[in-house]
Amino acid sequence: MERLRSRRIHIQFDASETLAPQDERLRLKPSENVTEEQEPFMGVKVRRRASFRRDYKGDYLDVPSQPYLMKILEKQGDNQVVFADRVLKFTGSGKMRRRILLITDFAIYIVDPETGSLKRRIALAAVEKLCLSELNDNFFAIIIPSEYDCLMASTRKTEIVTMLVEVTKSTSEYELEVAFSNRFEYNTSSVLVKEVQFEEVEEGVKTRIVRK
């Protein structure tokens, strides 16, 4: 993972959560450029200077050449991949896990890259909204009221959010809500709620994840 030279993203957890030493300070490079037409939240978010002119690629993993990913999709009756990339997912205990994120016309897939196993499938129809901060971090939460929510981080967050909004709109009359706040809650399980807090500091963006 490349280190960001000028700005850093700091992640802090409450006292009940721990990270491995190498994960105590996560540095993520800025997301790449996007066009105004492609970004559904243009004008609302405080965005990086370099995030205005870029064409989306979508599939960064060349899914058709990955038999284990194709097998997962085919088993679910899916074949139209609009986005595929590696992301960081936060577990209920606060640990970070490397995962593969796949987005199709009908669902979100979270795959373990080490074992090649499907960890979770989320129907797009079950997603209520996406939560993001107003700062230039890489975090986003997928809110699923009928299940439990999902907090992830990606250097291509803007593209992920755009794809989810566009795909949901194209396959239904429902327009996915994108909510912005420097504090938002998400349910890590049916009984545990956490809050993600963002603060702009001199070095970049400071992020804390605390239990409610």
CATH superfamily: Pleckstrin-homology domain (PH domain)/Phosphotyrosine-binding domain (PTB)
How many domains in all?
Answer: 1
Q: What is the CATH-assigned architecture?
A: Roll
Count of helices?
A: 2
What spatial order of strands do you see in the largest sheet?
Answer: 5-4-3-2-8-7-6-9
Detailed description of the structure:
By secondary structure, this protein is mainly beta. The chain has a single domain, classed as Pleckstrin-homology domain (PH domain)/Phosphotyrosine-binding domain (PTB) (PH-domain like). The chain is 11% helix and 35% strand. It contains 2 helices and 12 strands. The strands form 2 sheets. Strands 5-4-3-2-8-7-6-9 form an 8-stranded mixed β-sheet. A 4-stranded mixed β-sheet has the order 1-12-11-10, with no helix packed on it. The longest helix has 15 residues.
Give the SSE layout.
Layout: E1 8-13, H1 67-75, E2 81-90, E3 96-104, E4 107-111, E5 118-123, E6 129-132, E7 139-143, E8 150-153, H2 157-171, E9 177-180, E10 183-187, E11 193-201, E12 204-211
Parallel strand pairs: 1-12, 6-9
Antiparallel strand pairs: 2-3, 2-8, 3-4, 4-5, 6-7, 7-8, 10-11, 11-12
